[in-house]
Amino acid sequence: MAIDPVCKMQVDEKKAAATSVHKGTTYYFCAPGCKKAFDSAPEKYLGKA
Fold it and tell me: Average pLDDT by consecutive 10-residue portion of the chain (49 residues)?
């Protein structure tokens, strides 16, 4: 199970509502709205490296 970086819900990778690739890593989302929020500001949800 993956963790949605926006809402922190557990997401089954095979049933994810949406996915996004950022810097070579695939992120899984519970809903399209979480993907939209992530895509607009990924560093906000991932923290500073």
Answer: 96 97 97 97 84
